[in-house]
Amino acid sequence: MAKNLILLVFLFTTSLTMASGLEDKIIQFIEFEFGHYPKAQLTDLYKNYFQDAYGPGHLMPDTTRAGAYLDSELQESDWTDTLMWQPLGIHHDYYRINLILVRDGILPRDTLLLGMVESAPLARKPSIENWKKEWAEVLTIIKALYPDLQFLEEEEKCIEKNLSNGNVVMHHSKIYEEAYHPHYRIIHRSVFERWRKTFIVSGS
Asked: What is the four-CA torsion angle of 178, 184, 190, 195, rounded to 10 degrees?
């Protein structure tokens, strides 16, 4: 209740103008992330939002190398993240697919790789200027809801510096990686929905 009141006052006093319902979608996005990953940092929220806009394209310069890296990752043993799939951002154009599904034989390895290739060109990929505006809207609400988020100021500056250099990519925070050991790949929602009709993909 207190958080919602703070948010409403903040949005009013800063004259933030967004389309109807957008604020609610951003709040849901933030709360979903913290609900499943309470140790997430600002950079982790940014990465989630970024991946929904840009997809896996930055990871697909070499499919052979992508396959080799996938095989190597499947041999790892630190599988603490049990969320099987996760819609990203507020548009849910992309989903994170937990590699547990591949490791356990539910989703074929080659199907995943082909899905990544198919998904890469489907991203909307906003211009850097439009992306800055999108992220600024999200950041405003994060700061209103979680003003005491650990390393907030430090990570905000890091993201801002990256964006000023035209770089939209950020990596998971060390805290997030150590807590959850994420093993996933990014798939477009059209691919994901097709898979759900063929493979058993459960739990969000």
From this structure: -130
